[in-house]
Every structure is written in C-alpha cells, then in structure tokens.
C-alpha cells in the first residue's frame, strides 16, 4: 500500500506543470544520455555564462571583465579614492589618516595592489601632473576625476600597459603616444636623462628596519614571550630597554595570538625609550610624569609615508612651517611648565616625535629657570646612546635625540629630576600609593558625612523645605 501511494505521488510530481522543488535539474555542465545517465559535457559545448549588467557597464558594453582585469580595475578606483583623501588632507594640513591606515581599512578589498598604486603614483605625482597638463587631459570633463587619471597615467607611463577596461583607461590609452612624447619633452626641458632625477629626493635609509615588540609584563613574563615567538621568528633582547624584543624586518604580527590578547605590543624602539627613561618606582603616585604633548610629528614621517606627500619639504623646513611650529612650541612650553607645579613630582620626562629644534631644545631652554625654582634639573637620559641634544643650551649633553634616517624615527627626550633637598616634607619617601588612596578615601567619607547631616538638619529646622523636596 505504501509503495503504491509513493508511486502515485512521484507520478503526480512528474506530470505537474508548476515548479518542482523536489526534483533537481541536471547541471549545466552535464548532459543526459539515452540511458538516462548524466555525463560531463565538452567545455566547448557548455553554454556560456551570462554577462552581468555590472560587467557590461564597467567595460563599456563589451566583453565582461575577468580575473586579473577586474581586480586591477577596482584596485585603480580604490587607489584613486585613497589618493584623493590623502591629497585633500595634506592640502588642509588635517589628515584623516595615514596612507597605511586608509589603505588597510575594511572598505579596501585589494589592499596590496591599492597600496602599491597609491605609493608609486605619489612618488611620480609631480611628473604625472606635468604630463597631463601638457596633453590637455585635465582641461576636459575628466577634471573631477584627476586622481583616477593620475593612477592610470602612472600605469601607462611607468607600469602596466594592458588597461583596455573602463572609459578613463580608454581615454588615456588613446593618447598614449602624446603622453609619452610629453614625458620625453619634459626630460629635455629639465635637462635630465632619467625620470628619477625629476622626482623629489628625500633622505631615507636603505637599511631594513627591525620589528620591535614590547612585552606586557602584567600578562606575560619576558622569557615566556621569547619562548613563544622563537617558534616562528629569530628573537633578540634589546640591550637598552627592558622588555623590548627585536625581530627580523617585515615581520607581520598583526594576527599573532600574543598581539591579539595583549601580551605583546608592536612599538618602535625610540618610543619605548621614552617610558624607560622615566623609571618609576613601585607604589609611586603622581611622582613620575611622562609628558608627550602634541607636536609636528616630523620624526615619524617615514613610518606614516609622509615623505611621499607634496608638503613633506615644508614639514622638514622650519621656516616653511614656522607659524604652526611656533603655536605648537607655545603649547608644549605651557604644558611642561604645568608639570613642574605638581608638588609630589620627582621625575618628569618631556618627549616629542619631532626633529625641529623649536619644539625640542628651545622648549627645554625656555623652562630651565622655572624648573630650577621648583628644584628640578636636567639629568642624563640613556647615557650609552650616542646621539645627544643640539648644543644650544647648558646641559645639552643630557638630552637625547634619535635620527630620522639612521634610526628610522626622530624622537627627542629630556629628563628633569627634582633634587633630594628640594622635595616637599609632606611627600616623604615613605608615602606610597596605598597611603594616598587611604587619605583620599577618608577625605571623601568626611565630605559625605558632613553633607548628609547638614541636609538632614536643614530639613528638621525648615518643614516647608522638606515638603518642597518631597514634591
């Protein structure tokens, strides 16, 4: 009986004209033989895939984009968006983010290709713009897409030539001969033989920069971190900063479990030297101050790839950026002067990631009289470090500088230490963090008790006040 009902049900499904969700149709890459079996079809007999509307739109209604062509097409558009954001922020001196942070944002899919296009286009940007102006490309309707045209022009002049996708690509490919003739004419006009001679030169060390990580000793000890990292990398201890480890250049640790769980932090050597110079003792409470105020950031320009930006020459030049630097120096001086007003402070570190004298030695020199009045004096910072402060003030040998080219970062560190006989009596050596907390708790408790009883007393004396509060 059951088999009969099942046969009737299957026959009903077979003869019905409405869609049959229970019966799977044969695959497109297969054929039904006379015996009722599915056999694979020859590749040439398979039906071609339908061209999507998006592919037709991207390619001007012709063949659909496939594989590498499609990837390159979108990489150029993504690079153009990043390039526009970078150049607009650079022109306003208010960057939305560094080149790396913009490229490695979640919205960018092809990060490697986009990053390469942005960097190489920025390197050749002055030359590319001169060539585009000479061929009158930017005077047309494409002026609004200047960044995209610069990206494509770089590919035509210095990179790939197979760009037969997209309207912008076809526009510049149709003028390829004019673009190259304009480039040759530019070289003759500037009296140079190679394109590199037209590109802005900046001093950057060719030596690869090691990867430094700092161990978070609150979660893991240094030896355990070394043991874990040596499973994949060669690890050395830094000879100057405790808890700082040195790994080979270009080591990518962004997805490493120790980085994700906060056991280690990726941090440069120069910035790690700042905290090491403070040397706070256990239990100190507002007795060690690390002052790292806003600065020009000229010492970290290479890490942020700022050397590729049009404004980089002005950043390195004190005179070309004098107004901004003077405002920053005034703020830095005010912040450092305020740090001296803390009566419990014994060690104050002043640090910037700037290479400019106006933000470094000049600020320290301007506060020396005030520091002396509070009992502070300059003290040596990492004496074994070879590069010291500029000789423009007394005690410059105690200051520390890192070189932007040699060390990869341009940092400045100054350490002020209060003399032992100038420390206030109420902040003796025996006072600890716990003692400060207990005194603070006692003061808060007294304030609460006084407030409570004063209000209860007022309510008893003045009944109208009590009724008004209840309403």
Indicate the topology.
Elements: H1 2-15, E1 30-32, E2 38-40, H2 53-58, H3 67-92, H4 99-103, H5 111-123, H6 125-134, H7 146-157, H8 167-174, H9 176-190, E3 211-215, H10 222-229, E4 236-237, E5 244-247, H11 257-260, E6 264-266, H12 269-278, E7 288-291, H13 312-316, H14 322-339, E8 347-352, H15 361-373, E9 376-379, E10 400-401, E11 412-418, H16 433-461, H17 463-470
Parallel strand pairs: 7-8
Antiparallel strand pairs: 1-2, 3-5, 3-6, 4-5, 8-11, 9-11, 10-11
Helix pairs in contact: 3-5, 3-7, 5-7, 6-9, 7-8, 14-15, 16-17
How many distinct folded domains? 3
The CATH topology of the largest domain: Rossmann fold
- Provide the β-strand percentage band: 5-15%
Taking pLDDT < 50 over at least 5 consecutive residues as the criterion, the unreliable ranges are 18-57, 465-471
Oligomer: single chain
Major beta-sheet overview: 5 strands, mixed
Superfamily (CATH H level) name of the largest domain? Vaccinia Virus protein VP39
Query: Span from first to last CA?
Result: 82 Å
Order of helices and strands: HEEHHHHHHHHEHEEHEHEHHEHEEEHH
Region (Disordered): 33-64
Family: Belongs to the class I-like SAM-binding methyltransferase superfamily. RsmB/NOP family.
Keywords: Methyltransferase, RNA-binding, S-adenosyl-L-methionine, Transferase
GO cellular component, one term: nucleolus
